[in-house]
Design a protein that fits this description.
CATH superfamily: Porin
CATH class: Mainly Beta
Number of strands: 19
Largest sheet: 16 strands, antiparallel, barrel
CATH topology: Porin
Number of helices: 1
Order of helices and strands: HEEEEEEEEEEEEEEEEEEE
Strand order of the largest sheet: 2-3-4-5-6-7-8-11-12-13-14-15-16-17-18-19
Strand content: over 45%
C-alpha cells in the first residue's frame, strides 16, 4: 500500500468521523472517483407487551433491540459494487422458558458482489448471500417499512428445518435487470436451498433452489435497487405490480403483489398488498408431529396516510393465513388472522422515527375429538424507536 493511498484513506476516515449530523450526508471513504466505501447502521429499540393467551391473560413484557446492524457498501471500479450487512436481532429479548439473552451472535445478513458487465442496468449479476426474489414485502428494507415489521408470512419457507435461510436470504447467483427506462424489472437466480441429509450424509439428490420475480412500474419508475422502499411518504407517484416464484424439488411458492404511493398536495398515501401460496409437498412434509410447510395461502395488506407537515403517519395492516384442512392436525399449522393499527412520528424521516401499534390476532385452536373450540384472541402493544444512517 503506497503512502499516498494510506494518507487518502486516513483523511477519508477522518472526514467520515467528523461529518456533520445532516441526515442527507453520507459517511464515505473515497479512494478516487471510481473506488469508495460507504458506512452505515440500523438500530431499532423495541418494547413489546404481548398477551399470553395459551396460559393466562397476562401480558409478557420485553424490552430489547429488534435489529442492530452494521452496513458497508461500496464501489470498486466502474463494473463492480458490493454490500455487506451484519445483524444481531432480538438482542435482550425474553422468550418463553428461556432467560434474557444478551449474547446473541453477530452474523452476516447480506454479503454479495454485483457485477455490471456493460454500461447499462439491463443486465446485472449478483453473487453471494442475498434476498430471494419472491414478493415485494420479502424484498423491502427493514429501515423503511410502513408498519412495525414485515408480514408474519413473508418468510415461512426459511425455517431451520426447511430452506434454512437467514430471513429470506440464501447463497446463490442472481441475474437482474431494468428495461424500458426502469419500467420493467426482472430478477432470476439459482440458490443453495435446503441441503437435506439421509442419516448424517448429505445426499446427492439435493437439487438447487430457483427463484424469480417480475415487476412493472405503471406510473413513475423506481430507481434500480437491492431492496425496495416500504414507503416514500406519499411524495412520489408509483404503482408497481409484481409476480414471483420460488421452488426446489417438490417445494413451490408463488406470489403476487402491488404497491402504491400517491401524493395529495403536501400529504400522501402508501398502500401495499402481498399474496403468497406455499406448498412444501413431500420436500417439506407436514405431519402431526412435524410442522413442515403445509399447503396454504397467505395475504397481507397495509396502508398509511402521511400528514407530512406534521411528520405523522397513521397506518393499518391486516394479514391472514389459511392452511389446507388436510394439515390442521398440528398446532403450528392453523389458520390465523391479524390486525394492526398504529402510527409513526418521523422526526427525521427513516433516519429517526418513533412507532407505536396495537395488534389483535385471532389464532385457531386444534380440533379435538371432532369439536372445534373457539379461537384464541391475542392482544399486543409494540413501541419502537429507530435510528438509521446509510
Amino acid at each position: 500500500m503506497s503512502l499516498s493511498f494510506r494518507m487518502r484513506l486516513a483523511a477519508g476516515a477522518a472526514v467520515a468521523t467528523l461529518m456533520p449530523a445532516a441526515v442527507s450526508a453520507q459517511a464515505i471513504i473515497k479512494v478516487n472517483d471510481s473506488i469508495n466505501v460507504r458506512l452505515g447502521f440500523l438500530a431499532q429499540m423495541q418494547a413489546d407487551f404481548n398477551q399470553n393467551v395459551r396460559q393466562d391473560s397476562s401480558y409478557a413484557q420485553s424490552l430489547f433491540l429488534r435489529r442492530l446492524r452494521i452496513l458497508v457498501g461500496g464501489q470498486v471500479g466502474s463494473h463492480m459494487t458490493f454490500f455487506l450487512e451484519t445483524d444481531s436481532p432480538n438482542l435482550g429479548r425474553t422468550t418463553a422458558g428461556l432467560p434474557k439473552n444478551l449474547q446473541n451472535p453477530v452474523f452476516m445478513q447480506d454479503a454479495y458482489v454485483e457485477v455490471k458487465p456493460g454500461t447499462s442496468n439491463a443486465f446485472l449479476l449478483d453473487l453471494g448471500l442475498q434476498l430471494i426474489p419472491l414478493c415485494r414485502n420479502c424484498l423491502e428494507s427493514a429501515a423503511s417499512l410502513l408498519p412495525i415489521d414485515y408480514s408474519s408470512y413473508s418468510f415461512l419457507q426459511g425455517g431451520a428445518s426447511l430452506t434454512n435461510t437467514s430471513v429470506g436470504r440464501d447463497v446463490g447467483i442472481q441475474a437482474k435487470g431494468y428495461l424500458f427506462e426502469n419500467r420493467l424489472e426482472y430478477r432470476a437466480g439459482v440458490f443453495s436451498g435446503a441441503r437435506q441429509t439421509t442419516g448424517t450424509v448429505v445426499t446427492s439428490s439435493n437439487s438447487f433452489r430457483v427463484a424469480g420475480r417480475l415487476q412493472a412500474q405503471l406510473l413513475e419508475a423506481e430507481a434500480p435497487t437491492y431492496s425496495y422502499a416500504g414507503t416514500y411518504f406519499g411524495r412520489r407517484k408509483i404503482l408497481a405490480l409484481g409476480i414471483g416464484g420460488d421452488a426446489q424439488s417438490r417445494y413451490r411458492a408463488f406470489a403476487a403483489d402491488a404497491f402504491l404511493s400517491y401524493p395529495f398536495g403536501t400529504n400522501g398515501m402508501t398502500a401495499q398488498a402481498n399474496f403468497i401460496h406455499y406448498n412444501g409437498d413431500t420436500f417439506f412434509p407436514a405431519t402431526a408431529t412435524v410442522a413442515g410447510l403445509p399447503k396454504q395461502n397467505t395475504f397481507e395488506v397495509e396502508a398509511g396516510y402521511h400528514f407530512n407537515d406534521y411528520k405523522l403517519t397513521p397506518f393499518v395492516k391486516f394479514e391472514t393465513r389459511n392452511v389446507d384442512d388436510a394439515f390442521n392436525n398440528n398446532a403450528a399449522n392453523l389458520d390465523e388472522h391479524r390486525f394492526q393499527v398504529g402510527g409513526t412520528y418521523y422526526l427525521a424521516g427513516h433516519n429517526l422515527n418513533f412507532k407505536g401499534a396495537y395488534t389483535r390476532g385471532t389464532l385457531n385452536r386444534l380440533i379435538v375429538a371432532g369439536v372445534e373450540p373457539p379461537a384464541y384472541t391475542q392482544n399486543g402493544f409494540t413501541f419502537q424507536v429507530q435510528g438509521f444512517y446509510y
